[in-house]
Amino acid sequence: MQPVAPNQQRSLVERLTKMCGGAYSPETRRKYFISGPQWAAAYQGQALFYAPTRHPVSFEEVIRQFGHIGIAHWCTHDSDVIPTEALGSDRQSEIVAKIRRTLEENGVKCSMVTTETFYHAVFAAGPAPEAPEVREYAAFRVRNTVDVGHELGAHYAVYWPGSLGYFTQGAIDEMQTLRWYADALNAACDRDIEVARKKGRPTLKHCLEAKPFEPQAEILLPTSDAMLAFIASGALKHPHMVGLNPEYLHELMWGGAPRAALARALLAGKLWHFDINDGYRLKHDVDIAVGLVNPLDWLNVLMLLRSNGFNGPFNLDFKPLRTTSNHGVFAVSFPNAVDRFITLWEIAGEALEDPVIREATAALKAGSGIAPGRDADAIAEANKELLTLHELVPHRLVQLLLGTHRGRVHFS
Ligand code: XLS
Ligand code: MG
Ligand code: MG
């Protein structure tokens, strides 16, 4: 192949993207409760060992592009758009008004706001450190995010505690730190009750997001299960206002099964918001876009969610690859992520209706029909053939995923 000159590369990518097919229209995409984070679209490709590869993108551009693609919802950290030093000031009100106008002009809604309690040096010792003035500042930040959320019409607030933990133990009192962290959430909920009443709006759904490691080596609330225990611990003043925002990859990172973690959250009635992405078990937070690594697992996850009535918000908390250009972020990365999600969601619906899967799962539940007794060998023997369905069902799911159930075959 001839080298591809710089001025021909974009059209090549676009031509190959079109050849991929399978794209949904913006109208179809808008029917799903999918949100796009400001920080994901504006991510410049930097990391500890990496320089940025993309130039900065304004919130106006992100929202305009989301509107164009058909991503109906936008979400943001308090400091993604409002500079940290402007938080809580008149300048904040001006910026928030500008965000509102931009959202309206582009037919996009703000679904969620979240507080950055991990990046700024003030949170070097975490969002719930010993120094009372830092804790008071953290409380101000979460209260202010609640205000911003109500101003922008959001219904969800997310809290990823970031550096709630340590690299080396000794100085940190875990019990005290957890109680102080609860104080910050209590401040956010109290503020929410007050603002919601004044504005005649419902209170926000406050969703905790766990990550097992990064940015600290040891995290005090490393998993969604730990968050559930924390919500039920008695430390929160308004536990009914607080639920979960699990992130798919964060559960894989500790070696968990995301589907099982989500089932536990559903069982507790606390699955309120879901960060969708992909990545690898027991590795760091690579935030790859949904379905690029584990499509079969994703299909299973979506079957669980569909059959339990969870249909969003699905938040595209991924990072466009560092090798993707600024143009590619909106031409390739976001639309394809949305479309893979929708396709997987629709296949999950198909799988739930699939005659093979339906009959197999019903048969498994029916058992052998032999009279219940205490003869373990006899019971095992009677179910022996039926249990082979445990292998047939996943085979069928792979067929549905690959399209072989529609007659797709390979000849060699
Ligand atoms: C970081 C988190 C972050 C949260 C919001 O790992 O996923 O992006 O979703 O602060
Ligand atoms: Mg996340
Ligand atoms: Mg992540």
Would you summarize the structure shown here?
With 412 residues, the chain is of the alpha/beta class. Helices cover 49% and strands 8% of the residues.
Report on this structure:
The chain is globular and about 70 Å long. The longest helix is centred in the C-terminal third of the chain and has 28 residues, at 326-353. The chain contains 16 helices and 10 strands. It has 412 residues and is of the alpha/beta class. The strands form 2 sheets. The protein has an 8-stranded parallel β-sheet. Strands 5-7 form a two-stranded antiparallel sheet. D-xylose binds at residues 77, 114, 158, 160, 209, 211, 247, 275, 285, 317. The site of D-xylose (XLS) has 10 residues, from loops.
Main pleated sheet = 8 strands, parallel
Q: If you average the pLDDT, what whole number results?
A: 97
How far apart are the termini?
A: 27 Å
The beta-strand count equals 10
Shape label: globular
Strand content: 5-15%
> Could you tell me the radius of gyration in angstroms?
23 Å
Structural class: alpha/beta
- Widest sheet: strand order? 8-6-4-3-2-1-10-9
Low-pLDDT runs of 5+ residues are none
Number of helix segments?
16
Helix content: 40-55%
Q: Name the bound molecules.
A: D-xylose, magnesium ion
Order of helices and strands: HHEHHEHHEHEEHEEHEHHEHEHHHH
Notable features of this structure?
two-stranded antiparallel sheet, binds magnesium ion, binds D-xylose, alpha/beta, globular, 412 residues, eight-stranded parallel sheet
